[in-house]
Amino acid sequence: METTSRMQYLRATLIFIVITLLFACGGGGSSSEATNDGAPTTPTPETPPTEVENTSPNILFIIADDMGKDSTNGFNEGTVKPYTPNIDNISNNGLTFSNFWNYPVCSPTRASIITGKNASRTGVKWASDAISNDETVLQKYINDELNDTYATAVIGKWHISGNRGQVTPEDFGIDYYAGVLVGTEQYYDWSLYEGGESNVQTSYITEKFTDLSIEWVNQQDKPWFLWLAYTAPHTPFHAPPASMHAQGNSADYEDGLDVMPYYFLNLNFYA
Fold first, then answer.
1. What is the CATH architecture of 3-23+55-268?
2. pTM of the predicted protein model
3. How far apart are the C-alpha atoms of 185 and 191, rounded to whole Å?
4. pLDDT in tens, 139-181
């Protein structure tokens, strides 16, 4: 495959990945036209752009933690849905998949997305499993193919390197990482790993990840690829700051309370 065509293909692949991860999903595949005798015709390829590097799209790859179809508008599963107008808008104006598979645990899902491999091949079959240091992650592969076109970052929850937190995205060739290396911690009192150090944070974790993402994007002077991995709506159940959802002030969660309102509260920030 010629270099220009290959780069075009990779750019199209990147855009597709971003669409799928932004809860937009989709339906419409294209089909070839048929001649009068029923034989398919070959579509005429478009003329490739002469300067591919100047048209490389920025990529924002957002993943929610433990959000299912039953809590996503537009799917039949679930009887009560959260208020998420922005996600709904992306879905209504994008692509929606009705036939897809994922793992029931977050870590295997992350490992498969970032490597393109099944869990049986990554070795990450459960939350405590660690991905091999020999794996080539998506961001590294793209930059190897596109001559280091992209600035890359992972911000948020990593948790595909076991529970010891000794391996970071930067060990896989990612330019910048800030977040939590292992499982979900408390939302108001948690440990932020950045620049080789861990520091206790008291700012709300969802807001902090968002602010770090905005700061990193604003610092870039070339196309960027940001994987933003929120911990919400994963447990522990709690009431987020009132300014981050549409339900007003809520009492904090206590054992024995109905968990669903608090689960939905942690989806409202996507609104």
1. 3-Layer(aba) Sandwich (3.40)
2. 0.78
3. 8
4. 999 999 999 999 999 999 999 998 876 799 999 999 999 999 9
